[in-house]
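Hi there,

I know you've been waiting on this one. I reran it after we fixed the sequence typo, so this is the corrected version. Both the input and the resulting structure follow.
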Amino acid sequence: MTKTKLCVLIVDDVAAVRSYLKQILLGLGVPDIVEAADGAEARALYTRLQPQLVFLDIQLPDMNGKELLRQFKSQNQHSQIVMVSAFSSVSNLKDSIAAGANAFVVKPFSVKRISHLMQPYLN
């Protein structure tokens, strides 16, 4: 997959988190990044754009991110979903992977962690 074809959706209700992650991705050369602040907005963007990669917060104001993950995977099994949470519990990790997540990142995340996750998409 080339950089120019990669579309990334960031779903988080905290604007500062979305902005920080977007800046990291832009710095890595990802040109096509869209953001959603809640589940309803994320669902609409996902359906319209079919992003290859989604960073999805577990706790959203209008729905559980794990339920949204299941919906995304039912629409497109090939989408790569990275669950993001401020809570690093084993149950969050296990539940996310069981629901189809490809990776799990704990907030606050580092540039190094995101860079590592992005390597398969940037080469």
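Quick highlight: The two ends are 7 Å apart (CA to CA).

Best,
R. S.
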